[in-house]
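Reply to dn_fold:

You asked what the input looked like. This is it:
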Amino acid sequence: MTRHTPKLLGAFFLAATFAMPLSAQVAPGRAAGGPPPTERRAELERQFRQRTAEIVRRQLKLDDNQMAQLQTTNQEFDRQRMALVADERQTRQALRAELLAGDAANQQKVGTLLDQMLKLQRRRIDLQENEQRELGKFLTPVQRAKYFGLQAQLRKKMTELRNQQGGGAAQQPMQGRPLRPGVVRPMVRRPFR
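and this is what came back:
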């Protein structure tokens, strides 16, 4: 990392922070003469993506061709990642529902769901490997390593911002909820993102 990396990462986080509070300020109803909340949110997301792309371009020193390839690759892998996240959420919810049943939990179903969690973790690793392989077609190893770090830091910061704004319950559905006697929470670790 260069001596300028902390400043650039600070700018990266500033871009992440900029979009979130503004989107939280959009009221459920429409302000007089203002755009509907969905349009405002879409515009904020577009601005956020643009700022993030500028920071990535500068940090990784990408040329126009590399930037175009990166955006195309991101779109494809983001779709796959979103599908994986949905599958993980569904499996965690099903496992939680079974465990909340206490002694009446279906042992076979719990075993199947645990196996599914492991398969989903393998899918996440495969997805990361495939993404890195694709990025390797147009980024140097150093650029890939820096980009991997930027992605991880951005995801962490976005999760923190969501949690601060009350979105943490959706991300971590079991934290902070009291247990009924005899109910054990599943010890399912989230994979590294």
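The chain has two domains: 1-62+141-167, 63-138.
Hope that clears it up.
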